[in-house]
Amino acid sequence: MYKYSQSAVIPYLYNEDVLHVVLVSTNSGNGWVFPKGLLEEGMTPWDSAAKEALEEAGITGVVGEVLFDYYEYEKWGGICEVNVFLLAVRELAENWDESFFRKRIILKKEEALKKVKKSQKETLIKFFNHME
């Protein structure tokens, strides 16, 4: 089975001292996920993940270079291996590259855990436990 290398970020911010995460709608619009994509050639995994956050959700910020988590899921007839990094949000653009077909939401813990796709739920639980 073919393996695809992907990188993702969990974009987070504090609003009134409460931790929130930013999720983006999937390409099909039928779910909510962290920004992620194929690892860009010539880029570090964390820089590639930050690029996806900007393109998919209009997010800029400080991305950690330390791998936070890893998960796999099936897609395109193969396995996607996803390295996950943390991104402290500095700015949310009003318009971004994929804003014509992707939506963005900012959620507290309980709301985010209800909305995020199953493949990313365990990673999101680890994130909230890590940040407490």
**Could you give me the name of the CATH homologous superfamily?**
Nucleoside Triphosphate Pyrophosphohydrolase
How many strand units?
Answer: 8
Order of helices and strands: EEEEHEEEEHH
Query: Outline, from the CA principal axes?
Result: globular
Query: Which architecture per CATH?
Result: Alpha-Beta Complex
What is the CATH top level name? Alpha Beta
Total number of domains: 1
Plain-language structure description:
With 132 residues, the chain is α+β, with helices and mostly antiparallel strands. The protein has one domain: Nucleoside Triphosphate Pyrophosphohydrolase. The chain is built from three helices and eight strands. The protein has helices at 45-57, 109-115, 118-131, and strands at 3-15, 18-25, 32-33, 36-38, 59-63, 69-75, 78-92, 104-108. It is globular, with a radius of gyration of 14 Å. The N and C termini lie far apart (38 Å). The mean pLDDT is 94.
Task: Outline the fold blueprint.
Blueprint: E1 3-15, E2 18-25, E3 32-33, E4 36-38, H1 45-57, E5 59-63, E6 69-75, E7 78-92, E8 104-108, H2 109-115, H3 118-131
Parallel strand pairs: 1-7
Antiparallel strand pairs: 1-2, 1-4, 2-3, 2-8, 5-7, 6-7
Q: Key terms for this structure?
A:
globular, Nucleoside Triphosphate Pyrophosphohydrolase, 3 helices, 44% strand, eight-stranded mixed β-sheet, 132 residues, 8 strands
